[in-house]
Amino acid sequence: MPQFDPTFFAPQLFWLFLTFVTLYVLMTVVALPKIGAVLDERQRKIDDNLDKAAQLKAEAEAAVAAYERALSESRAHAHSVIKEASDRLAHEADERNKALATRLAEQIKAGETRITQAKDAALANVRDVAVDVAGSVFARLVGSAADAARLESAVAAALKEHGK
């Protein structure tokens, strides 16, 4: 094999050096700047995307904070509206209860008055009814009519005895 023949080492080393230098120059002048430009562009895009992502994250956090603030304000407003409505309804219920209690008290008082009047009327008639009943009982038992004055005095004494 000619590659291993020592007489051909010098030309092979020359061509190796020439090829190496040519490839080195081509790489440094043509290929590496293009690769560097692509890498720089890629890094710039990555940095831009990271900056955009950070900006969007900050905007999202601000939106979340605004949402939570609005939600908190809404809850506070709803709580105050509910409390106000509850207080108003409680006040109205108290007023209705007072009006109902007053009306019921008046009805109770009127009922007691009617009962007292009916009781007084009944007690007034009790004397007459008692006299009539006593006269009827006496007439049935004895067979003759009783003296009206004696019946009234006996009924009066009985009523007085019972505190009426």
Which keywords apply here?
single chain, mainly alpha, 2 helices, 164 residues
Could you explain how this protein is built, in words?
The chain has helices at residues 9-142, 148-161. With 164 residues, the chain is mainly α.
Spans of at least 5 consecutive residues with low confidence = none
- Summing up helix and strand content along with how strands pair, one would put the structural category as mainly alpha
Determine the strand fraction and express it as a percent band: under 5%
Share of helix, binned = over 70%
Radius of gyration, in angstroms, nearest whole number? 61 Å
For the terminal residues, how far apart are their CA atoms? Answer: 159 Å
Query: What string gives the helices and strands in order?
Result: HH
DSSP summary, beta strand count: 0
Shape: rod-shaped
Give a quick summary of the entry.
Helix content is 90%, strand content 0%. The protein has 2 helices and no strands.
Give the helix/strand layout.
Layout: H1 9-142, H2 148-161
Helix pairs in contact: 1-2
